[in-house]
Amino acid sequence: MTSVTRSETPRVGDLPTPPTMPGLPVVGSLLAFRRSPMASFDAAKKLGDLVRLRFFHRRGFLVSHPDLVKRVLVDEHRRFGKQTRGYQNLRLIVGNGLLTSEGEFWKRQRRIVQPAFHHRSIASFADTMTASTERMLASWRSRELGRVEMEHEMSRLTLEIVGRCLFSTDLSDASDAVGPALTTVLGMAMDRITHVLQIPMSIPTPFNRKLMHAVAELDRVVLGIIEARRRSTERPTDLLSMLLEAKDEDTNETMSDTQLRDELMTLVLAGHETTANAMVWTFHLLSQNPDVRDRLHEELKNELAGRSPELSDLKRLPYTDAVVKESMRLYPPAWMLGRSTSEDLELGGFHVPKNSMVFISIYHLHRDPRFWAEPERFRPERFLNGEFESVPKHAYIPFSAGPRVCIGNAFAEMEAKLLLASICQRVKLEGAEGHVVTPEPMITLRPKYGLPMQLSWRVRD
Ligand code: HEM
Asked: What Å distances lie between residue 185 and 188, 203, 259, 331, CA to CA?
């Protein structure tokens, strides 16, 4: 009797190991991953839906099927934590904020922040989003710009929006400090993540000092927001007030200064970098696909007739919505998710040991020919003609899924559509001649050498 039960439900440890990516002795796939994370995952994916990779002394598993993605992010999310190299290095920047914290602590912080992102709350942000965009367009016009660095412009604009909407603060002047500091910290964090040796931050190597200097630049901005509010007699009803006033249910204490700093840093960075990238990729794709750009302009011309878009207009802009969705399919700004296993477990019929890293490449899921017709083509129509309904739910996850789903997803979608509608009905943007656009998979997905664009004004008709 006992032996029958055993053979029907084998112990997890007795399950087979999934196909393994060939790698070098000792370091395994780490150097190949460092050279090109995309190429490493391209190769690994060919071996199956669950593939083992070795990174020095740690095992990694690439998950490439929507059913397994659902298990990791939704059904069994408690077994998949955030103790990965990626998150350890991200903590150097954002500390223990909403993106990086775990367990009961994370749950409590999420409960505090969540109301600021309810549909009712974010509806009031629409006017701020379009007003900031109009200001940017007016500045382009007054400077008679013929060429714009879109990465820079979008980063500036989305930072301004996050500051005004969530913290009632004008961060437009901070953009010149935040932009380069963020590029430095994201690049250096990625460098540490993929390096064979991670020198502890307590050792003041030139690399570590440069990284901490860039984090200090970001700190100056974030601490400046908190100090200005503490000095002010005004108490706007915004997310910053909610964070300042939130009290622990057990101790009745407000958040410590460190915790406040970590939450703000998380929201400032996560709240603008990804949306800026989504916009940049959308403009790039539109410049490469004039037919889509023309159809988008047609919709905007018909529905808005030169007016600035309002929230109530968005339901009449289905093509604009499809363009944003399709752009995030091809270039998901958060292109990869990492998790760690807290116990031995079974996944896809294989054994995944405790303390392994589990990767989900959103970029690859979104281009998997098993789930997407013409996966490499920019075809927003797929979100309008019923095609998308047959795509498995967890094959499209630009904002992740499950309890750790992006808290800002509705905010970001609304913002992206309002910005796109405001900008595309006024200007025509084309890729700068001779500029090659290559995705650079860092912690987020950016174009490697930025995105300079030629700009021409549309005549209002
Ligand atoms: C196009 C824009 C955006 C994309 C593609 C995006 C994507 C994501 C993804 C994939 C995650 C899950 C990360 C993980 O669990 O490993 C995430 C989490 C998060 N995002 Fe976003 N995001 C966007 C915009 C925003 C905005 C506008 C905000 C805030 C204003 C925001 C704040 C956050 C926070 C705080 C988390 C952590 C949530 C938690 O774990 O409870 N994001 N985002």
From this structure: 5, 17, 20, 21
Residue 248 lies in a domain: yes
Q: Are 99 and 400 in contact (CB under 8 A)?
A: no
The answer to whether position 2 is within a domain reads no
162 pocket-lining for ligand 1 (C-beta < 6 Å): yes
Residue 54 counted as domain residue: yes
Any idea what the CATH number is for the domain that residue 308 is in? 1.10.630.10
Rounded distance between C-alpha atoms, residue 259 and residue 199, angstroms = 26
- 80-81 and 147-149: which strand pairing? unpaired
Tokens, residue 326? 């399709």
pLDDT tens-digit map of 190-217: 888 877 778 888 899 999 999 999 999 9
Burial 329-355 (b: 16+ CB within 10 A, else e): bbbbbbbbbbbbbeebbebbebbbeee
Ligand 1 binding pocket includes 407 (Cβ within 6 Å): yes
Task: Give yes or no for residue 269 CB within 6 A of ligand 1.
Answer: no
- Measured from the Cα of 403, ligand 1's closest atom is 41
Neighbours of 459 (CB within 10 A): 5
Report the domain count for the chain: 1
The answer to whether residue 101 is domain-embedded is: yes
Place of tokens 């696909």: 289
**Ligand 1: which of 87, 281, 406 to mutate, judged by most atoms within 8 Å of the beta carbon?**
406
Average pLDDT estimate for 233-248? 90
Q: In sequence order, what are the residues at sequence separation of 6 or more whose Cβ sits closer than 8 angstroms to the Cβ of residue 448? A: 437, 438, 439, 440
Indicate if ligand 1 lies below 6 Å from the C-beta of 90. no
Cα 433 to ligand 1 centroid, rounded to whole Å: 33
> Structure tokens of 127?
């006017």
Higher pLDDT among residues 378 and 192, named by residue: 378
Q: Distance (Å, rounded) from C-alpha 394 to C-alpha 68?
A: 9
Q: Whole-prediction pTM value?
A: 0.94
Expressed as residue numbers, the domain containing 225 is 11-457
pLDDT value at residue 7: 47
Query: Up-side HSE of residue 80: CA atoms within 13 Å toward CB?
Result: 26
Give CA 441 to chain center in angstroms. 12
Q: Is the CB of 274 under 6 A from ligand 1?
A: yes
Residue for token pair 């603008």: 272
